[in-house]
Backbone:
């Protein structure tokens, strides 16, 4: 029968025996049951697995004057187990007897020994068990007789029928459905049977019902075969009487087998600049856990991928500009000879404002020895910053210094003597936070002239910020330098809704763009020097976006994209300067950067004012 069915066996109700009348002051206590079990060749006495199945005859005699001095035992085979159908005296040697327990407890007697190997089927009829009537008789020292009869059923040899276990494989579930259990022939023995084992491979276990299952642990195949001792023991719940047990040794092989690791996480949730990323576990299957992540690269500053595969952190302030990030890593399991997945890649998108830096106007020529105070915000514009800002510049003419006062940097002091010439200065804006930093640079042409040099009329404005139809346009100043410093302006080609106006010596473009004004507009700017009638002319393309296209497919503002287009166009076309007065011409090389316009601030007047 299958051991899995043993759990359902009903517990036998034990019936107490009743004593016959006895003389006063002497109490004889029989065993607490009138029905006993035993198995051929399984001893009543103590074994390594259970307490002894003892049958006690106890005489309580405080004066110790009336001890039982003899107990005899007789066995009769019940008629249900004999060929004749009648009760018959058992004629063999039972293999057990009633004995005094020990010298210290002379008033206690118990059954000791084991039924012989024919008592389960004494007539050789193939019976699985035989019912006996066991009678214990005796008298105490006072001559008071007693006799107790028990039903004793002795079972033929029980056995574990399962002879072997199928091999298991490291990391692969063994008997996952629990359909295979240890098979045993218990010959109908009563009680509940519990299976246990010693020496199983790590990761496998044997249930009380004899189901062997589990997943062999990593490296368990390095020790093979395993010698496993399985025991099936008979127990009686709530009754202080153990049953018998049987055991058998088995060998079980654990195979190494083919091992495969699988990356289960195929995509990552997007992150946001400067915001905590909800920690996620990168999932892996196959092989032997735990898994180890190594050779990790491609993460934005502020984020980490732990050795156990947890992605977390805060993307730094420049992460969106370089998005998407290609996160690369290796994974290995914990076998003695680990399986390795190398050069794995996952894409991490990071959104957020993108830092932009754009030159908006050309620097005027500077004069040797003349002090200047130039606000960078009058010539460059930036946007998309969330962290701290700091300016730096390279190749600045001698005598000039950069004051990096946060977002409001300034160039101050005076060019030294003999510094006249053209300079290409790399102006860098660095953004930083607690997790990292990044920067953008533009090349700023700066020209230094000798004192009393003749500076031609020049239009400093090199691009017009883009706009959106139906929305207010950022008020933009048109700048010029050189000549007498007194100018008039003629501006044409503006989209509907915009106009040019003057405010003293300054010219501004402002207004609200028309509802149907989407497109590109070549805006012509003419600056006239009223002191010399010299003129300068340039054409700059203004981009106007549709209100429905403010956000592009990649999430960027269309105005930023248009700015790039306008600047690229400006680089190609250049600034057309026309003068009616001969003089020294300075080649101004205008470096162009990226995205977005910030309203221009009025500059401080210097020896060579820009207007």
Residues:
């Amino acid at each position: 029968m299958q051991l899995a069915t043993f759990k359902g066996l009903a517990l036998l109700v034990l019936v107490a025996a009743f004593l016959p009348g006895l003389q006063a002051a002497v109490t004889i206590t029989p065993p607490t049951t009138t029905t006993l079990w035993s198995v051929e060749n399984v001893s009543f006495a103590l074994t390594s697995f259970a307490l002894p199945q003892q049958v006690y005859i106890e005489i309580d005699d405080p004066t110790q004057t009336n001890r039982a001095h003899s107990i005899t035992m007789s066995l009769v085979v019940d008629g249900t187990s004999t060929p004749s159908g009648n009760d018959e005296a058992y004629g063999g040697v039972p293999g057990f007897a009633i004995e005094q327990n020990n010298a210290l407890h002379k008033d206690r007697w118990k059954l000791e020994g084991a039924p012989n190997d024919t008592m389960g089927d004494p007539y050789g009829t193939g019976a699985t068990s035989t019912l006996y009537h066991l009678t214990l008789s005796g008298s105490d020292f006072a001559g008071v007789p007693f006799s107790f009869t028990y039903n004793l059923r002795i079972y033929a040899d029980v056995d574990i029928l399962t002879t072997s276990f199928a091999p298991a494989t490291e990391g692969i579930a063994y008997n996952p459905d629990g359909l295979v259990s240890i098979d045993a022939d218990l010959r109908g023995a009563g009680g509940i049977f519990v299976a246990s084992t010693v020496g199983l491979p790590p990761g496998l276990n044997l249930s009380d019902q004899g189901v062997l299952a589990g997943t062999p642990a990593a490296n368990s195949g390095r020790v093979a075969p395993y010698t496993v001792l399985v025991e099936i023991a008979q127990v009686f719940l709530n009754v202080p009487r153990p049953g018998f047990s049987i055991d058998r040794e088995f060998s079980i092989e654990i195979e190494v087998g083919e091992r495969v690791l699988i990356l289960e996480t195929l995509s990552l949730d997007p992150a946001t600049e400067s915001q905590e990323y909800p920690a996620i576990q990168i999932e892996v299957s196959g092989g032997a856990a735990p898994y180890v992540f190594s050779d990790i690269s491609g993460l934005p500053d502020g984020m980490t991928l732990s050795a156990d595969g947890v992605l977390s952190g805060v993307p730094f302030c420049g992460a969106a500009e370089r998005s998407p990030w290609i996160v690369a890593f290796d994974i290995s399991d914990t076998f003695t000879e680990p399986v390795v997945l190398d050069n794995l890649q996952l894409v991490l998108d990071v959104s957020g404002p993108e830092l932009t830096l754009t030159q908006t106007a050309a620097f005027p020529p500077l004069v040797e020895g003349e002090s200047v105070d130039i606000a960078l915000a009058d010539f460059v514009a930036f946007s998309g910053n969330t962290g701290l800002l700091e300016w730096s510049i390279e190749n600045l003419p001698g005598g000039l210094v950069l004051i990096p006062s946060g977002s409001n940097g300034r160039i101050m002091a005076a060019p030294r003597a003999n510094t006249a010439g053209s300079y290409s200065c790399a102006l860098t804006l660095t953004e930083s936070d607690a997790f990292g930093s990044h920067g953008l640079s533009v090349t700023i042409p700066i020209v230094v002239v000798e004192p009393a040099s003749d500076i031609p009329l020049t239009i400093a404005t090199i691009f017009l910020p883009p706009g959106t139809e139906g929305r207010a346009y950022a008020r933009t100043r048109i700048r010029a330098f050189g000549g007498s410093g007194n100018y008039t302006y003629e501006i044409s080609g503006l989209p509907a809704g915009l106009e040019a106006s003057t405010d003293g010596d300054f010219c501004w473009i402002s207004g609200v763009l028309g509802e149907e004004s989407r497109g590109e507009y070549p805006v012509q700017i003419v600056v006239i020097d009223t002191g010399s009638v010299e003129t300068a002319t340039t054409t700059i393309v203004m981009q106007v976006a549709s209100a429905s296209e403010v956000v592009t497919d990649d999430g960027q503002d269309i105005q930023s994209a248009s700015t790039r287009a306008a600047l690229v166009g400006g680089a190609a076309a250049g600034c057309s300067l026309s003068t009616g007065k001969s003089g020294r011409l300075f080649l101004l090389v205008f470096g162009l950067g990226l995205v977005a316009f910030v309203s221009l601030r009025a500059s401080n007047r210097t020896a060579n004012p820009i207007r």
